[in-house]
Amino acid sequence: MSSVAPVELPIPGGIAGRAPSLEEEYVEATTKAGRVKKNLTSRWATVAALLIAVLWTIPTFGLFLSSFRPAVLIKTTGWWTIFSNPGLTLDNYRDVLLSSSSSAPQLGQYFVNSVAISIPATIFPLVLASMAAYAFSWMKWKGRDVVFVLVFALQIVPLQMALIPLLSFFSRGITIGNALIIPPTPSGTYAQLWFAHTAFALPLAIFLLYNFISQVPGEVIEAARVDGASHGQIFLRIIIPLAMPALASFAIFQFLWVWNDLLVALVFSGGSPDVAPLTQRLAELTGSRGQDWQRLTAAAFVSIIVPLIVFFSLQRYFVRGLLAGSTKG
Amino acid sequence: MTTAELLNKIEQVVIALAAFAAVIGLLLFLIDRAPKKRKDFFQLVGFVAPAFIILIIGLVYPAIRTAIQSLYDAKGNFIGFDNFVWAFTQPDSLVSLRNTVIWVILTPILSTVIGLAYAVFIDKSRGEKYFKALVFMPMAISFVGASIIWKFVYEYRPTSANQIGILNQVVVWLGGEPVQWLQAVPANTVFLIIVMVWIQTGFAMVVLSAAIKGVPTEIVEAAQLDGTNAWQRFLHVTIPGIQGSLVVVVTTISIATLKVFDIVRTMTAGNFDTSVLANEMYTQAFRAGEPGRGSALALILFVLVLPIVIYNVRVLRKQREIR
User: Fold this and answer.
1) Chain A residues closer than 8 Å to B46 by CB
2) N or C, which terminus of chain B has less Cβ within 10 Å?
């Protein structure tokens, strides 16, 4: 198998060879002549870019700043008057996270729930979809194209179409005739949410990973086959390492989707604090305490801090992986 | 939350992950030891069966049942296409149909245009990474979180009081009267769409930026030598070069837009003529106890989205032929 180790792959313009060439381009363009020309032509472009960047940031910034202001000031003055109405406090965060009074948001347990839902709901579809994507890319079978189009088409089946029947599967189990094939899922556990998220993620996951995995040069696969590698070996030792950037970036996407989901959580958590994620709690607060801006602002930031950390720390993977795959051609 | 509860939650996750790893590991092990006879078949099944079983139980079969349900009323009587007649005649559902069309036209166009422009503007500029991060950031925020952020932007206070929402403050600075943005029919739909555009632009920008970098430098340089200006190069070199990505971006955002309901739900709950199909469907199916009507609306959504998928599939096919 050593002859097909990923490191040795000569991939002309392919996925693995792509990243370094991008960097070279980048270096080239930012040196001397390139930069001079750029500066001359793009002053307005820079202004426009700055404008968009500011417009895009202000809403979040305003809420962020407000989350540190005392309740009275939030409700009576705008956050942009922070200098004429000074006052910063951590009380809002203390209130939403630590306060155990029944009217407080008590976000701690919901935070744990969000983590517990998101991690398996990211890993499950990732593994299953990469296996299916491999079968679509590198196994020859009758009806492959038709089935692929069908799976792709499933993306547009609105979640809502599956919710009610799926919920009844969970509560009654699945029977064929009188035989119970899959027993009812105990409520108050994460299993329903994991399953629902996995099912809903698969069509897009298969499609995106297919775009990437089918780009692996055929010669590599052929060479491995000649060496006597089986499908399982090719999948584990060639496809997975090569597709790692795509896998990582899909994982980021999926994690964000699950973490940020509201609808699936609403339906399958049964509203129980044992399973409900942050988004659900947040939506409740918006509905019932829509004017409690000191709580809403702080709670909103508790819920978005994890996605922000994930995004900023894994941005590299993100740009190099999924995008090269999903947008190829 | 007690420590015992926390441990129980961690235990659930660890057990689930271990069980999953064991099943997949065993499957891959068995695939390589499939009987010689019909080996290809067994291997194929090993690779696609887990995903397909979950897709069928979790998506295909429920969707079919929902489709059947659209022909029945709340009491379980077969009523033919009455639910669809209802959808196309009642003022409420007509409004949500109209709004959905507006959403699906505006959101992909605005997100893609702004995202593309931004990607071009910051391409190869200093600090490109940070520029990207700023606009992409909303993508990491939940629809619920974004709704709260924008509700705060749109927050209304009467003229006599200090404004606490930045948009109304800007209006006041410009000498206008503060407006209850989310109740101003019909513009309020646009204010909701802005939230979606705010989120999706980052996605469009990141994808298109990567695509732009994939356009061969030689072609760009050749065009430069031919004396073309930046706009011509953009139109005749960049755009054709990133066509595939543009299709992916527009279709992906369209699909996301059709399915979105969190924003409408959180910000207006569909009041003030802002409802969209997905929200109306939820209301009918889960609030009004009319699963038949909800199912009918779901099917309409499905039909609306078909042309997008067909187009996407055709582009995919073409790319395959070229390869």
Assistant:
1) 232
2) C
Residues 6 or more apart whose Cβ sits within 8 Å of residue B316: A152
Distances (CA, A) of A8 to A1, A4, A212, B249: 12, 7, 19, 33
Look at residues A5, A139, A161, A111 and name the one whose alpha carbon lies nearest to residue B46: A139
A246 touches chain B (CB under 8 A): no
Distance (Å, whole) CA B304 – CA B307: 7
**For A77-81, which contacts have Cβ atoms below 8 Å and span 24 or more sequence positions?**
A77/B162, A77/B164, A78/B162, A78/B163, A78/B164, A78/B165, A78/B166, A78/B169, A79/B164, A79/B166, A80/B166, A80/B169, A81/B162
Q: What six digits make up the tokens of B76?
A: 């379980």
Residue A54 has what pLDDT?
Answer: 93
Q: Give CA–CA dist A232/A134, Å, rounded.
A: 10
pLDDT above 60: residue A7: no
Cβ pairs bridging A and B (under 8 Å)? 331
Residue with tokens 């820079």: A46
Tens of pLDDT along A66-75?
A: 889 988 888 8
What are chain A's domains?
2-41+90-326 (1.10.3720.10)
Rounded to two decimals, the pTM is 0.80
Chain A (173-202) residues lying within 8 Å, Cβ to Cβ, of chain B: 174, 189-191, 194-196, 198-200, 202
Give strand ranges (E) for A158-295: 174-176, 179-182
Q: Compute φ and ψ for B113, nearest 5 degrees.
A: -65, -50
Contacts with B138 from chain A: Cβ below 8 Å:
56, 60
Instruction: Check CB contact under 8 Å for A116 and B9.
Output: yes
DSSP code string of B1-24: --HHHHHHHHHHHHHHHHHHHHHH
The answer to whether A66 and A293 have CB atoms below 8 angstroms apart is yes
Measured at the CA of A150, the angle between CA A144 and CA A152, to 5 degrees, comes to 100
> What residues in chain B have per-residue pLDDT under 50?
none
Cβ A168 vs Cβ B67: under 8 Å? no
B167-219: pLDDT as tens digits: 999 999 998 888 888 888 888 999 999 999 999 998 889 888 888 888 888 88
φ/ψ bin of B113: left (φ > 0), alpha (ψ from -120 to 50), beta (otherwise): alpha
Q: Name the CA radius of gyration of chain A, rounded.
A: 25
Q: ipTM of this predicted complex? A: 0.82
Q: How far is B91 from chain A (nearest CA, A)?
A: 22
Q: Which has the higher per-residue pLDDT, A226 or A15?
A: A226
CA dihedral in degrees (B302, B308, B312, B318; nearest 10)? 120
CB contact under 8 A, B44 and A53: no
**What sign results for the dihedral spanned by CA atoms A141, A130, B321, A146?**
positive
Q: Which residues of A touch B143 (CB under 8 A)?
A: 260, 262
∠B287-B291-B295 over CA atoms, to 5°? 120
Number of CB atoms found within 10 A of residue B186's CB: 13
* Assigned token pair, B64: 């079919």
Half-sphere exposure of residue B56: CA atoms within 13 angstroms, side-chain side: 8
Report the alpha-carbon distance of residue A34 to residue A42 in Å, rounded.
12
